[in-house]
Automatic annotation (TrEMBL):
Region (Disordered): 177-204
The name this protein goes by in its record: small monomeric GTPase
SUPFAM superfamilies: P-loop containing nucleoside triphosphate hydrolases
BP GO terms, sorted: protein transport; retrograde transport, endosome to Golgi
A molecular-function term among this protein's GO annotations: G protein activity
Species: Potamilus streckersoni
SMART domains referenced in this protein's UniProt entry, alphabetically: RAB, RAN, RAS, RHO
Stated family: Belongs to the small GTPase superfamily. Rab family.
Domain of life from the UniProt record: Eukaryota
Pfam family, one: Ras
């Protein structure tokens, strides 16, 4: 397998206007366009990354957040390897809608155990002044949803963007390692084992 890059399908989810397209473009091409328009349907870009010495091609799917595009985006959830749930720290409603986005994704991706799927949560737009979502509230949501990693990002000034996307790959590898370590018999498996999330991109 040496030299061969593993393809990972990564889905970006969240309300319209939280900066999903800007995050994807910042990560893939290191560009930021303040005049970018809302995504219509679904777009995707590829980015080659190396995580822990392994090569991956991240195929990042940017989905439209508006309800009227639901039928366009949901077919693309199937086959996803990881999901970046995104809200804007200056938009309380986008944070409150996180559970809805997670539920929609799990349903249409046909995933039975949401707490053992590699979700990463991004609190975007930390460059803005009028913050509406406390960091601790976001971290508490993550604790209640499988201890998924949380990163505070800014597509505008590039804060933690690279770190957050690569964290999705690390989370996937971590959960795969846990599955490999589980005994195949009995029903006493400890699903909480080794689930400490890396919050290195967040507030302290």
């Amino acid at each position: 397998m040496s030299g061969k890059s593993k393809l990972l399908k990564v889905v970006l989810l969240g309300d319209g206007g939280v900066g999903k397209s800007s995050l994807m473009n910042r990560f893939v091409s290191n560009k930021f366009d303040a005049q970018s328009f809302h995504t219509i349907g679904v777009e995707f870009l590829n980015k080659d990354v190396t995580v822990d010495g392994e090569s991956f091609t991240m195929q990042i799917w940017d989905t439209a957040g508006q309800e009227r595009f639901k039928s366009l985006r949901t077919p693309f959830y199937r086959g996803a390897d990881c999901c970046l749930l995104t809200f804007a720290v200056d938009d309380l409603q986008s944070f409150r809608n996180m559970s809805m986005w997670k539920k929609e994704f799990l349903y249409y991706a046909d995933i039975q155990d949401g707490n053992n799927f590699p979700f990463v949560v991004l609190g975007n737009k930390i460059d803005v002044e009028n913050r509406a979502v406390p960091c601790e509230s976001a971290k508490e949501w993550c604790r209640q949803n499988g201890n998924c990693p949380y990163f505070e990002t800014s597509a505008k000034d590039s804060t933690n963007v690279d770190l957050a996307f690569k964290a999705a790959v690390k989370r996937l590898k971590e959960l795969e390692d846990q599955m490999d370590e589980k005994p195949q018999h009995g029903n006493t498996v400890d699903l909480k084992k080794k689930n400490k999330a890396s919050n290195s991109g967040c507030c302290n």
